[in-house]
Every structure is written in C-alpha cells, then in structure tokens.
Amino acid sequence: MMMTTQYNATYRLGKFLNQLLQPVIDIYQQGRIFHNGTDFLEKFHNYIDQYDRLRSTTNFVTITINNFYHLTPHHILLSTLLDFFVKYYHLPIVENIHITKIVRLTSLFLHNNRFYYDGKIYRFLKGGPSNSGLIETLSNIYLNRMDNFLIDQSSTKQNEFYGRYQNQIFFTWNQSLDELEQILKSMKSEYHHLSFDIHIGKNLNYLDLYLENRHSLLYSRVHRQPNQQPYSLPYISSKGDSIRKHSHWLRSSLLRAVRYCTTIEDFNQERIHLEMTCLANGYSVEFVQKHIEHFFTFFNATLLQQWSLDQHSYEKFRHRLFNFMSEQRQFLQKKQD
Predict the structure, then answer these.
(1) Digit-coded pLDDT (tens) for 188-213
(2) The Reverse transcriptase domain covers which part of the protein (predicted)?
(3) Which of 24, 35, 27 lies closest to 168 in space, CA to CA?
(4) Total-model pTM
(5) Residue 120 pairs with which residues in a beta bridge?
(6) How many C-beta atoms surround the C-beta of residue 313 within 10 A?
(7) 170, 164 contact by CB (below 8 A)
C-alpha cells in the first residue's frame, strides 16, 4: 500500500506553482499538445485537409515514455526549468514572482515530497507523485527538449504531423523507414535514461482511438484497452442522485462515438455498446431510450436511429456535428474573453 497526503503543505505549494507554470508551458507548446483523443483527432483532420499529406505510403508512429512521472533526478528537472525560462520565456517574472524564486520554490517542493509505503516513509529522488499537476508540468517542460529533438530531425521540414498527450507521442512519417530508424536510434541514445514503447505502422492504437491509413483515407473508431472491463462506467452508479448527476455521460459518449467512428457500422456498434453499458449498471430501458432519442432530436438526426441509413447521410451528420462543436468552442472562448 502506498499513501500520499493531498492537503499537506508540499501539495499546496505544488498546486500554487503549477498554477503559475502551466499557462506558460501551454502557450509555448500550443498546437502540438493534445488535451484528449477528440482534440488529437480534430487537429489531425485539420492537418490532413490543409497539407494533403496522408498518402497510401504514410506510416503512423507512436512513442510512449513509460517512466513519465519519474523521468530524471530533481537537479535535472530544475536545470531544465531554468533553461526553459532563459531560452523561451525571456521575462524575469511570472505573475510578479521572479523566476529565480520560482525555481527555488520548485526545489523546495521536489526535495520535500514524502510518501508512506509498507510501514516506512520515503522521499522521491526522481519525479514525484502522479497526482501532482506540477510534476506533470515539469515533465512536459523536460520532454519539450525531446519534442524539439524529434521535430528538428526532419518532421517540420517535411510538413509531418507531430504532437503529444502527456507521455504519448504521435507523428506521421512519409520518408524511408531506414531514416526513421536512425532518428529513433539517436533519440534512444540521447535519452538513454527513458523507457520507450515504440510502434510504427499504417494501423495502430493511440489514446482511446484505433487509426488506420486506408489507401490515403483516415479510418478511425473507438478503441478500448484489452484489460478494461467491457461494460464499466467511469463512475460508480447507484440509485437516486448518482444516476441523475451522471446522466450526461451517455450524451458525451455518443458525441465521442460520432467524432471517432468514420463508418456508420462502427457508430451503431458503439451505440449498442453504450446502451448495454447503461443497462448493465442499473439504468432503466426507459432512461436509455429517452436520452438516445433526445440526442438524435437535438442534433436533428432522428434518421440515424434507422439501421438502413447510408454512409453518405452519416458523413453529412458527422460534418454538421463537427461544425457544431467548433461553434460551441468559439462561443465559449468569446464568452471567456
């Protein structure tokens, strides 16, 4: 058993520092950081439409850094943070706090993280607790170096698509596989202390997506991990408030299904899976039918409930839904501004 304290002084310090640093790194890495599978897929579609670079010979590459939260010793994380400020930030303060003070406070946080395991108290020598937003931000700053290393090799020069979600990198490759192997070999040598899981091919899994290059057309659908229980919910369902509180899950999952599934057959299979998941977790048939019908009615797509609907009509619906989500984001951004 391993325990960490969420409300101790170190945790609160890390939360404060992360509120300072995360917006800084997000602005710098804007465009090549994915927030989730939907964000990745939208950016990938935009890339394909803009550059027309998805060819029948294009390979997909994924790189997973297995020790994301324990990348390097603390002194390297601190030197990387200071180096980031000097090279990319170019300002002496962040929200009226000098960068040298931020580095010292970060050092205080890193060197005073403790956890309890098997009757003993330990201190982190590399990284920190996985529930710390600051550790994730510091890891992102460190991996920014590796991002630049890979991009500088040839990705941006050849207009390849590149991005990362936390410890999972994705990019396209239109050059020779021998050249790619040399680049990956150099990466492993340069970052020998990292543990990599690399996959190359015209079809692979990334995040919660299955992707396939079908003769220069992108095919995608929902992917579930093999060790995931088939009809599990991301929350505990029970009678009363919990079911009402989490009823939005079905709607958001249907939205994800439309975004992810390029064929109507895959969408219908995913819809059945979602309905079965709700029923297996105590939701009534009436509840499921009501929310399914409300979803299709809201998006003016009641014909989608008919199994005879053709692929062309489904693609028109997908296009309309993508436009709707884009308009929603623009509205929220304007409201926030």
Answers:
(1) 999 988 899 999 999 999 999 999 99
(2) 1-254
(3) 35
(4) 0.84
(5) 117
(6) 15
(7) yes
